[in-house]
Amino acid sequence: MVSAAVNLFSKDFDQYIYLNLEKEEQRGIFEKNFPFPDFLITLFIYFQKKRYAGKTLIFIDEIQNSPRAVALLRYFYEEANDLFVIAAGSLLERILDKSISFPVGRVEYMALRPCSFREFLFATNNLQLAEMLEKPEVPGFLHTQLNALFKKYATIGGMPEVLNQFSQNADMTALEPVYDNLIQSYADDVEKYAGSSAQVQYIRHIISNVFREAGTKVTFEKFGNSSYRSREMKEAFLALEKTMLIKLVYPCTSAEFPLKPSLVRKPRLHILDTGLVNYSLKIIGQMMFNENISDSHRGIIAEHIVGQELLSSNFLIGHDLNFWVREKTDSSAEIDYLIPFNGKIIPIEVKSGSIGKLRSLHHFMEQSPQNIAVRVWQGTYSIEKVKAITGTEFTLLNLPFYLVHRIETELDKIMDNQNKQLTK
Predict the structure, then answer these.
(1) Same domain assignment for residues 259 and 325
(2) Residue 56 exposed, middle or buried by CB count within 10 Å (0-12, 13-18, 19+)
(3) CA distance linking residue 246 with residue 210, whole number of Å
(4) Does residue 70 sit in the same domain as residue 161?
(5) Element (DSSP H or E) covering residue 415
(6) How confident is the model at residue 314 (pLDDT cuts 50, 70, 90)?
(7) Are 46 and 184 within one domain?
(8) In whole angstroms, what separates CA 241 from the centre of its chain?
(9) 56-105, pLDDT tens digit by residue?
(10) What is residue 413's three-state secondary structure?
(11) Which H/E stretch holds residue 373?
(12) CA distance linking residue 240 with residue 209, whole number of Å
């Protein structure tokens, strides 16, 4: 995914140098004990490029194979800041454990996730629609068109390789080998991030079973109808989570700020990309023919793509997802997502239908010290006043799927309006 995204990004540069440090010859360029200026000369000569031939992008892939390459990043920053450098690698935290000089303060860390819906629009040449999504108010007459495109996005996902193929011929059937190669690449790379030969076996078992469990709460013990113990599976899940193929989303039981996820409860399983889930479950056709996203796979795909949008809207490494469960054992209630915002915890439900059916949201708002909630759906944008079952009043933001990336902007508008009313 990283290579495909950077290759597309490189088209905005005059020169592009790609290094894969899994290749011994290219890794050797960094291992020579040259002064940094001589290292740069060697690098440009090796790739037959000129140092000052325009805007240059250097992509150092699999950088975890060379601690010295990591250390040299500081000199790119200090002595060659006319060059643009991107570094990526599998499980970079492994080399952070070694005694190397990591360029703290000179490197910007970013989590590269699947493309967002807005990026999907750019990739599929819907440039005007992408621009309209950034207007203060998106025109209502675009609702049907944007809904249809979001359903297409929720179907094929946001992996750069997939979008690149789809943008060329818009043929869904041509995407199958792309999905297959992506999933196989994770299985092939297990040895890179497994801590032992036994863990290789555990992780491969997880990859074989993880897609059908997407969006559900998982139990580590005997995961995927195996005989593996809870400890073995949990450690394997944590190792796989570092590759960003999966994310374990833990629940909170409180409605009060700050978020306090309970790590002793069952986590919900989020997969890197919804398109990979749809392909693995063989429901791409179902997704295309169902009128409403929420009608596919018991509503799990709709919830999953909202989580994907929430993640893709933020490049911070530590950006996370959480959900809410009710502590009472006599009745169950669950909120799809919680986000911290301006010192408040905002609940997000992914639901179609009437307000009365949002019972879990009502239960949450009865406990919450704040008065704003969000419902993501295929309907139109609106803001309404709602009374919970016990009479608690709150403001409900009804947000179409295609505006999830703007959730913080819309919450800001509501809070500003509430503050203005309080000062009148």
Answers:
(1) yes
(2) buried
(3) 9
(4) no
(5) helix 407-423
(6) confident
(7) no
(8) 12
(9) 999 999 998 888 898 899 999 999 999 999 998 865 555 444 545 567 67
(10) helix
(11) strand 372-377
(12) 13
